[in-house]
Design goal:
Elements (H helix, E strand, L loop, with lengths): L1 E2 L3 E2 L2 E2 L7 H7 L5 E4 L10 E4 L2 E4 L3 E3 L5 E5 H4 L3 E5 L3 E8 L9 E10 L2 E10 L4 E2 L3 E2 L14 E3 L2 E7 L5 E7 L5 E2 L5 E7 L4 E5 L2 E9 L3 E6 L7 E5 L12 E2 L4 E11 L1
Antiparallel strand pairs: 1-4, 2-3, 4-14, 5-6, 7-8, 9-10, 10-11, 11-12, 12-25, 13-24, 15-18, 15-20, 16-17, 16-19, 19-22, 20-21, 21-25, 22-23
Length: 264
């Protein structure tokens, strides 16, 4: 499931790291992809949950060989539940996955207003508890404005300390002040999300990401080889699937929502 394009006054606001066909084939991130059943990295290709030992197959891997951003099987085979000029609701029953043997339904409601895109994601468990570790990955860009001149606002709380592979160590520290010019700074850092909206602005345009509900964590991602910045809404930190994550009880649902707003 992917939001491939978001335009404002004719300008594309989402970075395209790879083509749509590459996303379909390999799950390469672009636009605003769903990351499910987990966001970010796992610390190993196995985990245990609900009394089951699970080996992960069919996931993309990062430069360290770690599974990253969920399973390709979840990206495909979605069905439209309802659509109109301003809203699309799509869903998928996820059953029988050896790498995530916790049958459930995942459903996304996308609502578009003149200045705001809202994405609401609902996870419903079938017969067993289902871990809650999903997230989204908005690749935001400011057209025709040099990256060094972008101004960012990032209302984070604590910084999650990461090891050399990008996996949380369990320790936390004050995040410090992130607001200001992006300049030459780069990010691939994990935080708790504070109050307020995340934003990037420049050239008379401001893009805001509001974590409305269910997203207490974020990964801020801004590499030096891509003119984009990502404020990633995450229901759990990286590697949470391997460390007793929260779960949806059988027959129950969990809903999280965020929005992307544009002003000029």
């Amino acid at each position: 499931m992917l939001c491939a394009s978001l335009r404002h006054r004719g300008d594309e606001l989402l970075a395209q790291r790879s083509g749509l066909e590459d996303y379909k084939r390999r799950g390469s991130t672009m636009g605003i992809p769903l990351l499910h059943p987990w966001a970010n990295r796992l610390g190993a290709s196995s985990y245990a949950f609900g009394g089951r030992e699970v080996e992960v197959e069919g996931a993309r891997v990062d430069e360290h060989g770690l599974p990253i951003h969920g399973l390709l099987a979840v990206l495909r085979g979605w069905e439209t539940v309802r659509e109109s000029e301003s809203q699309l609701i799509a869903g998928k029953d996820v059953r029988g996955l050896a790498s995530f043997p916790f049958d459930h339904r995942i459903e996304i409601a996308v609502t578009l207003n003149p200045d705001r895109l809202r994405i609401e994601t609902t996870l419903t468990a079938f017969d067993v508890p289902v871990p809650i570790c999903f997230g989204h990955h908005p690749y935001l860009r400011l057209p025709d404005v040099p990256r060094a001149r972008w101004e960012i606002t990032a209302p984070v709380g604590e910084r999650l300390c990461l090891d050399q592979r990008g996996i949380p160590t369990g320790e936390r520290e004050p995040a410090g002040e992130l607001d200001g010019p992006l300049g030459e700074r780069t990010f691939d850092d994990a935080f708790t999300a504070g109050d307020g909206v995340f934003a990037v602005s420049g050239g008379g345009r401001r893009i805001e990401v509001g974590f409305e509900r269910g997203y207490p964590y974020t990964q801020v991602f801004a590499p030096d080889n891509l003119d984009a910045i990502c404020f990633e809404p995450m229901t759990a930190p990286a590697d949470a699937l391997r460390h007793a994550p929260d779960a949806v009880a059988p027959g129950a649902s969990f809903t999280a929502a965020f929005s992307v707003a544009v002003s000029a």
